[in-house]
Write a structure and sequence with these properties.
The chain is an alpha+beta fold. The chain has helices spanning 130-139, 142-157, 165-186, 193-203, 214-227, 230-233, 236-249, 292-296, 298-307, 324-333, 347-351, 380-389, and strands at residues 3-6, 22-30, 39-44, 49-51, 61-68, 73-80, 86-93, 98-102, 114-118, 120-122, 263-265, 271-273, 281-287, 313-319, 339-342, 359-363, 369-374. It is globular and about 65 Å long.
């Protein structure tokens, strides 16, 4: 039986369908020698990376549809074979119905091979994608090759560079130089959407190795604004890129700073305006059902809730899940009796500069941040003591 997966989008602020530029439709055929259970699908829709739920089971044919907010949607398929080796491939797809048939053959490039393709472009194929062919030629040219050899030698001789500040600076210098080389090449083809897509997915450092290098992020922000065309930068995709860079550039959030405001609805359609919750302490729990440490933290939050007076503390779960049904199920099954917000686009997470799940942020009655944590909380008793000591 053919399974059809329809991807629905939800947002705290609006229905994404209102702003969707196009719909894509791709039929995936898997050779009988491929185990469908070990195939994973995801795509970049111009705003975020969307992971498809694992509901294809043993079907060798699947139809995948969804919305996208850019000239093309980039689609990724990954297969783990019986030897636990991972193979993958990436494709550009537009509004024309696409079909791709896959046949697995082990290869040194770990490429998940296809035997038939229609209305889809393999992104990293130098024969099918001329834009990638140009960039690949540049990346394997003499200038980059010499730099890569020097970088490889550095990595070979300094495997523990991350623990040494001086060596980490050398690593960052190598990495920044590479990013600048690529940027210098992409500026030759600013109107080619591949250049914009590649910058977002491979060059942008707002969430990358150089995210703490404010000067370089400012350089990248100016580059985006000055090099790429207006229609790219004013699209939802472009606005998201620019906002990410601007958010990272601003001073890091510290204790005693005013908590950023947001207004949205809970998973039960209950309106929440964080500014109107002044008078209570607010504990924001940034989490997701697919995050094991987050799930392990649930008993801790329950202990906090039962140990602190309800008129003193309001807990709000901010979930990064992609599936609202799964979120509702987990919340119900675990008796998580506090407010929950569906933050699949990571709007609130970015607003609060959250880099790891789970993370807790405690806001006092005056709306100031007085506690932040990253990772599973081990000092729960100290947190409860702190809460109870507050007026």
């Amino acid at each position: 039986m053919l399974r059809i997966i329809l991807i629905a989008f939800f947002s705290a602020y609006f229905s994404c369908k209102t702003f969707a530029q196009n719909k894509f439709h791709v039929t995936i055929n898997l050779d009988r020698g491929i185990n469908p259970v070990n195939v994973r699908y995801q795509y970049y829709d111009g705003q975020r990376l969307v992971f498809l739920p694992d509901t294809f089971e043993n079907e060798h044919t699947a139809i995948i549809t969804g919305s996208y907010y850019s000239p093309k949607v980039s689609f990724n398929i990954t297969y783990t074979d019986s030897l636990k080796l991972v193979y993958q491939n990436d494709f550009f797809i537009d509004k024309k119905p696409a079909t791709i048939t896959f046949l697995h053959k082990p290869n040194d490039g770990n490429r998940f091979n296809y035997t038939y393709i229609n209305n889809a472009t393999p992104i990293y194929d130098t024969l099918q994608n001329k834009s990638w062919a140009r960039l690949y030629k540049f990346l394997t040219g003499s200038v980059m090759t010499a730099e890569n050899k020097a970088f490889d030698a550095f990595m070979l001789n300094n495997r523990s560079f991350a623990a040494n500040d001086s060596l980490r600076l050398v690593f960052n210098k190598f990495y920044k130089s590479r990013m600048r080389h690529v940027m210098s090449f992409l500026r030759l083809y600013p109107k080619d959407y591949f250049s914009y897509w590649y910058f977002i997915n491979q060059v942008d450092q707002s969430d990358g190795v150089l995210r703490a290098d404010t000067a370089f992020l400012i350089e990248q922000l100016n580059y985006v604004r000055n090099i790429f065309p207006h229609e790219f930068n004013t699209s939802l995709e472009g606005q998201a890129l620019i906002q990410k860079l601007k958010t990272r550039i601003r001073p890091l959030m510290t204790l005693n700073m005013p908590a950023p405001r947001f207004t949205l609805k809970t998973i039960n359609a209950q309106p929440v305006d964080i500014a109107k919750l002044k008078g209570k302490h607010i504990l924001l729990d940034f989490w997701a059902t697919w995050c094991p440490p987050c799930m392990a933290q649930i008993p801790i939050l329950k202990k906090v809730k039962t140990s602190v007076s309800a008129d003193k503390l309001q807990i709000i779960g901010v979930s990064a899940d992609n599936d609202p049904k799964a979120l509702n199920r987990v919340v119900g099954e675990n008796d998580m009796n506090w407010l929950h917000i569906f933050d699949s686009n990571r709007d609130i997470s970015e607003l609060y500069q959250i880099e790891v799940f789970p993370s807790l942020v405690l806001i006092d009655r005056e709306g100031k941040i007085i506690y932040r944590s990253a990772g599973q909380i081990n000092d729960v008793d100290e947190l409860i003591k702190k809460l109870n000591s507050l007026n």
